[in-house]
Amino acid sequence: MKYTPKTVNNDSEKKGRTTSAKAKVKSFPFIRVALQTADFGTIFTTPQSDDIYVITHGSWGDKSANKVVKSFKPDTSYAEIKGFAQRTRVKHGGKAEKHKGKKSGGYSENDLKHGNDK
């Protein structure tokens, strides 16, 4: 009798497969490891999941922990995930990135640079 392997047509083979968006982010072995070691606004994934996660602040009162994760499905655009992460970093005190192209000085510094003393 000839052996023929069974073919399985379900999504279990695709689980944890690397996508282009998933390749851009850091991978932690488990969500709890990410919550213990990473800051607010960190984008990460796990090998067991197709989802991409962002660490945010728990907002359900006493029943939620300080750090929780928001999950994004694989078809979510990376720009949307990155925008959420940046807003979270600014709001909850993670390592925020400065806006590119924004001048560091205010009106008084700019006036002094151009010789406009008040």
Give the helices and strands, then pairings.
Elements: H1 20-23, E1 26-27, H2 31-37, E2 43-45, E3 52-57, E4 67-72, H3 78-92, H4 107-113
Parallel strand pairs: 1-2
Antiparallel strand pairs: 2-3, 3-4
Written overview of the protein:
This protein is of the alpha+beta class and 118 residues long. The protein has a four-stranded mixed beta sheet with strand order 1-2-3-4, sandwiched between helices. The chain has four helices and four strands. It has a domain at 12-92.
Radius of gyration: 22 Å
Neighbour order of strands in the largest sheet: 1-2-3-4
The count of strands amounts to 4
Tell me the helix content: 25-40%
Give the oligomeric state of the chains in this entry, treating copies of one chain as homo and distinct chains as hetero.
single chain
Order of helices and strands: HEHEEEHH
Distance between the termini: 97 Å
Structural class: alpha+beta
Question: What characterizes the major β-sheet?
Answer: 4 strands, mixed
The low-pLDDT segments are none
Number of helices: 4
| Shape, principal axes of CA atoms | globular
Overall residue-averaged pLDDT value: 75
In terms of DSSP E residues, the strand content is 5-15%
